[in-house]
Write a structure and sequence with these properties.
heterodimer; A: 190 residues; alpha+beta; four-stranded antiparallel beta sheet; three-stranded antiparallel beta sheet; 50% helix; B: 72 residues; mainly alpha; 3 helices
Chain lengths: 190, 72
Amino acid sequence: MDNPFIELGQGEQIIAVLHRNWFHIAKQYVSVFLITAVFFGALISVPIFFPDMFGADVRTVIALLENLFLMGIWIYGFLIWIDYWFDIWIMTNQRVINIEQEGMFRRSTSELNYAKVQDVTALVEGFFQTVINYGDVQVQTAGTEEKFLLRTISDPNKVKEMIMGQMQNKERAGIDELGEMLEQKINPHT
Amino acid sequence: MVILLIQGLYAVVMLMVVVMSAIVVFHIVKYSYSASAKTVTLALFAIPMVILFIASIVLFSSINLAGIFSNF
């Protein structure tokens, strides 16, 4: 799977690319739809109730206002989309990369190697979170950033299991490597 | 005078629309994870935006500002 954000190391493969759950953005779009509905409802209903107030010029002005409002809403809708869709968590077989879009002009990238993971917790809290099955995954680390957070992602328990699985794979690979090194020391001619 | 003010305000609004659109396009082009997502999102944003922009200019230029503000 090609990606434009990270350089993969030797033997490193992308396992999953995670985004926030759809409900996170749906909540924000509800207010946008409501405002749009109220605005257009008013613009449609006022000429019906007061038809004599509106000559051709006034109707053109109203059409222009509708147009400007639509442009504003369209841009605002996409700004919400950008803030949502460009928060990405990339899970590879060696690390988790957190790319977070914070507003328009702030983007942070952090990564967590499985070797530094001490504890993983999946948190699903609330009515909608339980019904739709989304929540947070908190990763306790041994690094300078003590908590690594995957926020409002779908099926957090499955993601937790994926991280734990990769941690175990890493440990097993480390033990296998140690075993091979010891064997070479003991039997150098094999 | 009032007509010039209205035209100036409209120009400022349209400039802001262009700047914000450019910011959205920049983010879509630079930070989209896959090429297909980039193309679809860009088309979804740009096509209606261009139509609305052109419609806005047509509507504004068809308004008889002199007639509306003749008493000012």
